[in-house]
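2024-03-11 09:14:02 DEBUG pipeline.ingest accepted 1 chain
2024-03-11 09:14:02 DEBUG pipeline.ingest length=286
2024-03-11 09:14:03 DEBUG pipeline.predict start
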Amino acid sequence: MPFAFIGFFLAIPQASASGGCVIMPGTMSGLLSPILLQKFALVLVCMVTARNAAMAFNRYLDRHFDALNPRTAIREIPAGILSAESALRFVIGNSIVFVLATWFINPLCFYLSFVALFVVLFYSYTKRFTALCHLVLGVGLSLAPIGAYLAVTGSFALLPLLFSFAVIFWVSGFDIIYALQDADFDKANQLNSIPAALGKANALRVSRLFHVASALCVSIAGVYGGFHWLYFVGYGVFVGMLIYQQSLVKPNDLSKVNLAFMTANGIASVVFAIFVISALFLQYGW
């Protein structure tokens, strides 16, 4: 969601320049225009429903493996709190709302909605045949900034793509950390992941490499976009949280995985988005 907001606000100057939504310097009236507010609301709907569908489908598809894994046996479906059929209906309902929301945004978003939905749902199958499943998850989440940008402009651009690449490597890196918990279970049950394929120590090295790549993409985006200096304060926070996240987890000590996965990622993305959007406000005099 924070990177979707970045993509959305990045698009406003471009849309204004092309006459899509005119925002005069020094005023927020354009930001409060009905068209822009409607698109913002629709982007929110798309982000929520796509995530709902992806998460629920993952739980539905992996329910048998979740029941065998002591760490995940308490999840709603294996624990009997929620039926598999209910989860599947939830997936279908959110998928329909997602596609309908894109219909009201613009034709390009509508046509690409089926591709986006395929990617975020297909991820759940990937552990069955490739250790690169973490990258597929990264690709799914990387659609957020470019999708939000397309919602406003209806066209592609390099800058939001740089943020999308940053998301791919950021997500892949932290998903590897999360997968460390199930490395032994995955190997025993013929499921694929980088920790299961390479071992925990090597998997952490790959995770760090991905996070370096993510930081590099964010840096390039900052220079290419000519952002206000406030952007680079946010960049420092983002990179600092990546370093902190990596420092929490060791191959022989996974006790802080949840802290690294949940807390560090939440702070990194939300704080970075706040700084980027604030930089855009100052840069364009909104």
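2024-03-11 09:14:41 DEBUG pipeline.report The chain has a mean pLDDT of 93.
2024-03-11 09:14:41 DEBUG pipeline.predict end
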